[in-house]
Amino acid sequence: MHAYRTHTCNELRTAHVGAEVKLSGWVHRVRDHGQLAFLDLRDHYGITQVVADSASGLFDSLSKLKNESVVTITGNVVARANEAVNRDLPTGEIEIAVKALHIESVADVLPLQVNSEVEFPEATRLTYRFLDLRREKLHNNIVLRSKVISSLRRRMTDQGFLEYQTPILTASSPEGARDYLVPSRVHPGKFYALPQAPQMFKQLLMVSGFDRYFQIAPCFRDEDARADRSPGEFYQLDIEMSFVTQEDVFAAIEPVMVGVFEEFSDWKVTPAPFVRIPYETAMLEYGSDKPDLRNPLKIVDVTEFFADDSVSFKAFKGKTVRAIAAPACADKPRSFFDKLNEWIREEGGAGLGYITIDNIEHKKLADGAVKFGVTAGEPITAGGPIAKFIPTEILVDMCIKAAASNGSTLFFVADNKADVAAKLAGKARNEIAQQLNLIEQGVYKFCWVVDFPYYEWNADENKIDFSHNPFSMPQGGLEALNNAKSDAELLNIKAFQYDIVCNGVELSSGAIRNHKPEIMLRAFEIAGYTKADVEGKFAALFNAFHYGAPPHGGLAPGVDRMVMLIANEPNIREVICFPMNQQAQDLLMQAPNVAGEKHLRELNIQLSPKAKQLLEEERAKASDAA
Fold it and tell me: Could you read off the pLDDT of 139-164 as tens digits, one per residue?
């Protein structure tokens, strides 16, 4: 018999009754019932119940075992009595009558309970992550993550993609976040950078003649944590393809997304092809470039109506005004609207105006009577603080544009800046839908956001800048760049850039790349870079484009975010084995930590006076605490 086990703790069934077996695992729970002692033995695969009666010489030893100690059990498989069968446990029809017990290791008092779903502080969970990972939900999430990655690899190779590894120690690249720098010992004063993404390498692979590349790629960015973003590092399904259009990229990734989400979830998944939403439409109708399509509400621009001289509501004059028609809430109490008004002020807005629509019938709506669910010919009636300032004709036109129906409410957001109004309206759209329980449940709704602007205005530096990815192809190519005669015309240029979004979460950005050096020079020139800048900062890519570069494009869906969505977890740390906290600290391994003087000398690094002061303050606090 094997030294530790003949079976796993999820393997034994009634077919094994009578067999002598050996199991090893962790003590999940011990229950002393006086004449019987029960032990739930747990391993990676599941739980098996072990039993000893009071006549057994092992009764006392088994009943005194500490939770999370590791033991090896030898015994016989017996069938449970009908009334003792646990239908919720795969092994619930049998138990092990113990004959021998060997303690492999004893657990100290636990800082967190493994056999409970009781919440513990995040600092405790991350400091003792090896215990946290034993808990069923988190353990299952990590198993799910592994299976998702295996599925992604299989689906990519089935489409003819090959996996290639790209360097971890590389040069800094303009991905938009701060780099993690690694000092070079053999080149004093010089640094490597950990890759924010394998962007240039995967493009160089296409120039090198490889056709379909993918990689489960580690990426490193020194940026702040969010619920859907881990600080420090993350993984993405990095993809690049040669001789493709934007639609070819979509056609390659859509079945992968649908297949993985259908494989690991019983939620309904958007079938391919996914809807394409232009960036401008997304910002107007959803107030975000990450639209959550489970939310049925849409935003409309009603600025023109409040600019009309007949409208006497002065608070919106001269501002961008957006409206949201929310159904079946006109009869809500005043407190409902007041709370929403308080909420948007906390979000930085001036307020959330509203008009309740009791009956919107008017002669203009005669042809739309069926659509609006009213009878033609009746007068319009409306309520709320703003209604009295708006003439009937204007209000009816506004209701038509917003697709407002009887019993609905028109909510308004306004700001002096159009982009601020759009974002506030987007937040209001989500909050209103949540308050009214309008978010569709049990579905994954995918979409593509396309036609991003190639450039944006950098107000801090008062100049044109790249908006999304400097290596993408502008729509219209070199001609579009050269024909633009003003900043306004440059800002109107679109790029072959796209994001894939699921349930309001951006899974990936991607683009058809620029592969022509003359376009690269002109595009960077407009953004304020000289030829010397391009040749110096992007030498490898720029040089490669001079030796025959194919049209190519790709994208990189985030693995962590995919698993987070499939596991239905609100925080990305719940699907990562050893995540950092929000302050980018690894509490388990105590990183980042102080480097020794010898190590610093080898790397030719000297700490600044500020760094030395902060370290001294930390040491003093630690000493006081001790």
Answer: 999 999 999 999 999 999 999 999 99
